[in-house]
Design a protein that fits this description.
Largest sheet: 8 strands, antiparallel, barrel
Order of helices and strands: HEEEEEEEE
Number of helices: 1
Number of strands: 8
Helix content: 10-25%
Mean pLDDT: 82
Distance between the termini: 59 Å
Radius of gyration: 20 Å
Number of domains: 1
Shape: globular
Low-confidence stretches: 7-25, 145-155
Strand content: 35-45%
């Protein structure tokens, strides 16, 4: 009888821990890299991505306030079963990082999706043959409001 009780206690403990682990790992930041080309300031196409929910061929469209002189752009990523809109801040000091983009949440498969990336470019930024790179981290969760703190480094 003791071994049955012990078995039930161990099984219950494992079940409780299994229920907790997905919520903790959901907000753990993971590395993100994306390469894209742009045919204009308004339309880019993903060439490659380390995040399988945003595959090659995905379009990223941009909207600007007025003439865009405030240095902010609002990209939308539409995937098969969802979308997310963020903001890119082009007001960066001179250096290899041209912009910092953040996405706070989305819909469908991108619900509770968060992304923070630095934007760099290989080639002439004004050429459609240039490759734009997004490097940073992504996570799924409530942006730290669920008791977890997520820190991002942008060097």
């Amino acid at each position: 009888m003791r071994s049955v009780r012990r078995f039930l206690v161990v099984t219950g403990t494992i079940a409780a821990l299994t229920a907790i682990v997905p919520s903790v790992s959901a907000v753990s930041p993971k590395s993100f890299h994306l390469d894209k080309t742009c045919v204009s300031n308004f339309l880019c196409t993903v060439q490659s991505s380390t995040f399988k929910a945003i595959p090659a061929g995905t379009n990223i469209t941009y909207v600007y306030n007025g003439d865009g002189s405030d240095g902010l752009a609002y990209p939308t990523i539409k995937v098969r079963n969802g979308s997310t809109t963020g903001v890119c801040n082009w007001n960066q000091p001179a250096g290899p990082v041209l912009a910092k983009c953040t996405f706070r949440t989305g819909t469908g498969t991108l619900t509770k999706f968060h992304l923070a990336v630095d934007v760099t470019v290989t080639g002439d930024p004004n050429s459609p043959t240039s490759v734009w790179h997004w490097d940073g981290t992504y996570w799924f969760g409530n942006d730290g409001h669920d008791g977890h703190v997520v820190h991002h480094r942008h060097d």
